[in-house]
Amino acid sequence: MSTSQPSIAIVGGGPAGLTIGLLLRNRGIPCTIFELRQKPTDEELAKPSGMLDLHEESGLAAIRECGLYDQFLKFTGECSEADKISDRDGNIIYEDKGEMSNRPEISRHNLINLLASHLPADSIQWGHKLLSASPQSDTKQTLLDFGTHGKHAFNLVIGADGAWSPVRKMLTDVKPQYANTQSIGMTIRHITTKYAHLAEFVGDGSFSALGNGHGVMSQRGPQDSARIYVFLTHEDEQFHISSGMAGQPATFAKDRLLKDDALLGQWGPIVRELVTVACDEEAADNPGAPVEIRPLYMLPIGTSWEHNPSATIIGDAAHLMCPWAGEGVNVAMWDSLLLSHEIIKAYEVSGKDGISFQSALAPALKDFEAEMVARAKGFSEEAVKNGKMLFGEDAAKAFAGFFLRMQEYVKNAQRETIV
């Protein structure tokens, strides 16, 4: 192992940042994670959050290499891999029990807690807002400005800092683009006890009601919850503001959504009831809090940047995409896994024969970035294609057809394996 100690900073404490931090720490490589948010409390982490399905070749591969697979499985019973699809009137046109899937679900909070709890407490610096990142030509380092927390230079900065990444801003002037979609998120806790008929309607996995360019979707989660998402296709990037919903409680959003025929005003009674209950429950659970509404963004497909040996980006910072491919967190953790391999190799040879960590890493890092861009391009294209299917004409039928084709593909693959 190297006798030198290169300084490595990871900006962002989401799944990508925590994954690569843990992978490096497990190999004895020092690194520090800087996270904008304050350290979450146990109460905050216990709250229902969005579910993430991890895939064998990417997210699960990273979890296995972190040595956390058995512990991970303990958190995967809150949302099944089943799927249901309905039209806007609530007519179920497709349903499965997850028998064709092998993508276990975990809540975002549980994934974050699982990864963070296995890192040394001093390796994560909470409440550190990165104001800027800048290259230092004299030292060949990257300088991070954390405002009141000071400025610090590092041999390698890994930007896992999301959609509006300051690290990406240092590497390229490319910015995320509005994806013509607004997202509203709400939670119904204890749905089986309180609203058994709605629990039966959405099922114990994922549910999608589609029509008129919009979607009402559900994922089951912790505390017997259903996380409800309303996705609205709208050309106005500021619709969350111009609609009057931003800053208002969920009950206000309920009236705005259900009284406007251009939104959900003409949807069927059961879907409207689901949205009504979600809005009422969200407002009751968080009195006075504004509804969670935001525009969705994506980076231009194939976004790349000029290589810098002291800084790189991964996850949403590198290839922000809409959630329609179900690949965002998986591609991000895949980035972390592959990048960790290259850093470990460079760390182990640095210091030998006068080889510096940066010079050992530079060619591999450049190749990693090129391969990451190419890999992410395919998933981003898939997300755009799926978005057109989900919010286009006859969306529910098109989405059901997609699942039926997937089932046939899996069955054929199984037959070929048997033969």
Show the helix and strand layout.
Elements: E1 8-11, H1 15-26, E2 32-34, H2 42-46, E3 51-53, H3 59-65, H4 69-73, E4 83-87, E5 92-96, E6 105-107, H5 108-116, E7 124-125, E8 132-136, E9 141-145, E10 151-154, E11 156-159, H6 166-171, E12 177-188, H7 191-194, H8 196-202, E13 206-211, E14 214-221, E15 225-233, H9 239-242, H10 250-258, H11 269-285, E16 292-298, E17 311-313, H12 316-319, H13 328-349, H14 357-390, H15 395-418
Parallel strand pairs: 1-2, 1-11, 2-7, 4-13, 11-17
Antiparallel strand pairs: 3-6, 4-5, 8-9, 9-10, 12-15, 12-16, 13-14, 14-15
Characterise the protein shown here.
The chain has a seven-stranded mixed beta sheet, with helices on both faces. By secondary structure, it is an alpha/beta fold. Helix 1 runs parallel beside helix 5 (108-116), helix 3 (59-65) crosses helix 13 (328-349) and helix 13 runs antiparallel to helix 14 (357-390). The longest helix is centred in the last third of the chain and has 34 residues, at 357-390. It is built from 15 helices and 17 strands. The protein has helices at 15-26, 42-46, 59-65, 69-73, 108-116, 166-171, 191-194, 196-202, 239-242, 250-258, 269-285, 316-319, 328-349, 357-390, 395-418, and strands at 8-11, 32-34, 51-53, 83-87, 92-96, 105-107, 124-125, 132-136, 141-145, 151-154, 156-159, 177-188, 206-211, 214-221, 225-233, 292-298, 311-313. Helix content is 40%, strand content 21%. The protein folds into two domains: 8-79 and 102-176 and 299-395, FAD/NAD(P)-binding domain, CATH 3.50.50.60; 178-297, D-Amino Acid Oxidase, Chain A, domain 2 (2-Layer Sandwich).
